[in-house]
Amino acid sequence: MLFSLGRGKSLQFGVTICCLIAFVLFGYDQGVFGGILQMEDWLDQFDHPSDSETGIIVSCYNLGCLFGCVLNFIFGEKLGRRKTIWTAMALVIVGATLQATAYTVPHLVIGRIVTGFGTGMKTSTVPMYQSELCDRKYRGRLVSAETLFVGVGIVFSYWFDFGMSYVGGPIAWRLPLAFQIIFALVVIVLVFALPESPRWLFKHGREQEAVQVLCDVFDKEPTDEYIRTEVHAIHHAIELEAIEKKSSSWISIFKNDRLRTGHRVLLAWGAQFMNQIGGINLVVYYIPSVLVQNVGMTAHLAQIIGGCVQMMFMFGSILPALALDRMGRRNTMMWGSAGLGFCMLMISVLLSRVGFDNGQACASASVAFFFLYNLIFGMGMNCVPWVVVPEILPLHARTRGTAIGISSNWLWNFFVVMITPVIINRLQWKAYLIFMVTNFVFVPVIYYFYPETSNFGLEEIDEFFTSGRNPVKVAKEMTKAMRNGGVRSGDDLNKASILEEKDKAEVEHN
């Protein structure tokens, strides 16, 4: 660190602010291009690209994000959390510069791909970094707050574009694209004042530094019971991995070993699959087009209504940012998916009346369910997958497993962005039935396969998977025991359980 933010609360606050600004940038990157596509100067500069060319220009960013996750999978564990974030921000700066100075489509596409590289690395590192540097009691709320600030970034970019559309000329679209650099520079400066992840330091043999980071973050001495318990839990996780003789090869994280690593990587991948395939980017990227083509609004009114719809995403994210650890992960995902499915059903039913008597009134009424959809998504499926991915993975697979989990987000983001213009034009109201079905299917999937991880330490979550039983049932039993005082959350870890598991592992090893 070149300078320090102190100890305890001030340092935790610095970590959180850095992560939040990184995710404001994520949201800004997501939303900034949508408002540019209809600007006259942009269209003139790039010779009024066809629908297919526009699709390539928009979606190449998502492919860049996917490959950014691949870069993190390959290099993230070697670089550590801080250097990965630095690298990601540097790539965003280069990409934003290329976009803002573009005069040809290939130039613009390269800039968007490079920006995507940075975004992919950032989004597969920042939630993990926050999870490893916060109290477990607040982990859900803090990582959920990151997704709240994605909404802040989307809304800011949307209205920034809208305001700049009245300015006209090349600055109307070049300035919003260049503005990404400001966020990236702030994150780079903040990271210089923040520590490396203590879990990454332990894993790489830098124990003294790791203990000091824990002491600094929680403002305690090395002899404090909380620090000793955290150190013991991390050692225990590393020892279990050593006993299993973990391979450092990439393929090792897909194996269903004693820690059920492959199973947990699949759960992480599936969480982000559900985040995207429920149809959110139909709304984020294309809501003005949807309102014009399916509802029949004028382009100007559609842009204003679209901006208001995006604000619901942000408002909905406030609830989990304040209370996710009390709401729980499973229940929030289940009622969230059910609510999204209901909204898609109502949109489809109302739009199906277009062409009949009172059809326009029904189409206008469907707008209410776009508002409700974004509100429910912000409250549920927006935040929980980002929390679940880093916390459900074992330490040895956390970097690469998180990269794989977040790559699912970008893969299916790309898929939805590519198919949406086609299905809303060809299928009209029937297109929304596709997303109705996917959201309703997610409810039983979550119920039967995803354990509740709220209020458990990262190392405690390993116990869900090492017993050889159904992790969902084990999590329910541990949650019940926690409420009855048998397993403690907060400042205490169930040390007896950890010691018993360690002894068992040593006996098996011998």
TrEMBL record:
Span of domain Major facilitator superfamily (MFS) profile: 15-454
Primary localization class, coarse: membrane
GO molecular function, one term: carbohydrate:proton symporter activity
Pfam families recorded: Sugar_tr (PF00083)
GO cellular component: membrane
Spans through the membrane: 12-36, 56-75, 141-160, 172-194, 265-287, 299-323, 335-356, 368-389, 401-424, 430-450
Membrane topology: Multi-pass membrane protein
Annotated SUPFAM superfamilies: MFS general substrate transporter (SSF103473)
Protein's cellular compartments: Membrane
Alphabetically ordered keywords of this record: Membrane, Transmembrane, Transmembrane helix, Transport
Coiled coil: none
Family: Belongs to the major facilitator superfamily. Sugar transporter (TC 2.A.1.1) family.
Protein name as it appears in the record: Major facilitator superfamily (MFS) profile domain-containing protein
